[in-house]
Amino acid sequence: MAQKKKVLLKDIALKAGVSVALVSYVLNGKGRKNRVRKEKADSIIAIAKAMNYQPNHLAKSLRSGKSFTIGLVIADISNPFFANIARIVENQARLHGYTVIYGSSDEDATKSMDLINVLINRRVDGFIIVSTEKSEKQLEYLRSQHILFVLLDRYFPAIKTDVVSTNHYQAAYDSGMHLARMGYSRIGLIAYKSQMFHMKERVRGYRDALRKNGLPFRKKWLQEVNFLTAKAEVEKAIDTMRSPGFAVDAVIFSTYSLAVYGLKYINRMGIQVPEELAIVSFGQAEVFDLYACPVTYVMQDMDTLGKTAVDILVSKMDNPKQKVQRVLLEAQLVKRRSSAKKIS
Amino acid sequence: MAQKKKVLLKDIALKAGVSVALVSYVLNGKGRKNRVRKEKADSIIAIAKAMNYQPNHLAKSLRSGKSFTIGLVIADISNPFFANIARIVENQARLHGYTVIYGSSDEDATKSMDLINVLINRRVDGFIIVSTEKSEKQLEYLRSQHILFVLLDRYFPAIKTDVVSTNHYQAAYDSGMHLARMGYSRIGLIAYKSQMFHMKERVRGYRDALRKNGLPFRKKWLQEVNFLTAKAEVEKAIDTMRSPGFAVDAVIFSTYSLAVYGLKYINRMGIQVPEELAIVSFGQAEVFDLYACPVTYVMQDMDTLGKTAVDILVSKMDNPKQKVQRVLLEAQLVKRRSSAKKIS
DNA sequence: CATTTTTGCTTAAACGGTTAACCATCTTAA
DNA sequence: TTAAGATGGTTAACCGTTTAAGCAAAAATG
User: Fold this and answer.
1) CA/C1' separation B28–C8 (Å)
2) pLDDT one-digit tens code per residue, B175-185
3) Distance A29 CA to D13 C1' (A)
């Protein structure tokens, strides 16, 4: 019935009456290069197929020093943005003959480092990394070990690395401009308290948009919450922003998860969107389409993001001394009713 | 600065003045068993630490025949249900010292088989599989090769395999019962056209609930749509179900993706939920909380689902002749306004 | 004191491939 | 006729571990 033992190169060689080396050459397409007679090559291939030969990737990788594996380090696979990215990376990698091993870092630099080490030990050929705060050292480490990596979505402007990201500044700026144009003049932003560049950029874009429109800014309108206690803090932030006297009429959520917390709270409080509070959000998910009032959101080009990251990494693997690439994609603002023209 | 070359067992052995074998024994905790002197063992460990030794997992796996890797085959990582499952499996596997390699099958048996083969070649120690239609052969194949696997969420009742799943029949039955109890009497179901057992079970549960309540059933109320053209078919299905004369007053979506298509269409058509149409859905996501009218849904115990699958697989690896386990979890119906008591 | 056991460590053969180097034989060119 | 080149293969080292088997010296036993 089914073969009990794995079939090896040796078995094929035996049946074909040739050496193991020859079989290896032929099955790796190096037959011509190594002057193997056409008929012999064909017969070897036929035998391999007949015996259903499956190469042992571990042995291959060990000897050749190449595992055809990419390590993907993301914040959290259960976040739809990253799940989608993972999906795209997976497909694109397979297209290049690579397999992906991913892991979630939970925005924790230590976890991220652990993960990276596990993957290094598994001899991945390179990494695609969504960086966390305080992870600059990891990148230095990787570079010192000559391990290739491409940063995705987030990066450190001071460190010269390959990166594929969205122009977070522009996205936030556009969001602010859009709200201003729609007649909102007291605009708040809820962000994570973070030193990460992409977060800072979003804040900067927001502030520049206010400035550009001559809109007032108040400290209480810029709420930065901690990652681990985000839910409660978002709720408090919304309360604070809406305090009588300096209540906002619009808010930008700088992240998908913040938006989810926020929207739930807004529902619970019975706040009318956009009449009482207009909304624009980063991130991207079915939620925004199906929310009571469809939500205006920043649409990132996830497809290009993921594919480009893989492509850069793969081409870097083929030619490691290629020069550093920084791809910055523009985001599109998808305008919905949650930021409809203000009626007042 | 940083070491250029990877440090090997050989390097440690050299520095410690012992053989490579001894180092291997010690670092694998087999020092005592192999009668290594305590002080020597300690010094070896110290040296290894000082040199920041990182074992080559490929070599380890090749030699020992164990890769400490689990293959996870799911339908689509960008579906929140599977993304969450992936997350849980990842964590639980790491707890046992395993790494996860996942891949999406897109509900396609061929893709699933390809994926499984890639992972076999990478010498995963076992699989956790969310089966697709017509994939029975794959399972036979795996078994014939003595490759361990556990089925997750879906299974084939005729094939005796380890499985962790939800009681889909009960979940659907409960959904129907709930709607009936809330006063709905013309209940429809939108499902995928599939021979998969879990889908059939959902249909069976739905029909039994109708029967139990003496409610009428009409062919047009049971709509089965094709996977690849689901969006358009769901919309047509809703139209059909609401045709004058035998319009439903409630509908059960048997899947997250079907619900998303359906809800979008319901929004577009301006159908009032639950006044004109009550809704219960399978799947689980933020969407259901944030939808204009919070949606009643079947809550599966994803945590137990994922963890148990890993646990069974790992214990099976330790002892392959363990007897087959079938874990069937009960689902909880989370009741929301979308299925509120009918007013008529 | 001679023998057996225990202790502590080394040797060397795997694991399943890849690949540089080598060796015949047969053509071709001078 | 003969040296050089082309053709079609084989040999064997190597990738970095694990682990069974072996071996000498020290300790225990009778």
Assistant:
1) 17
2) 999 999 999 99
3) 22
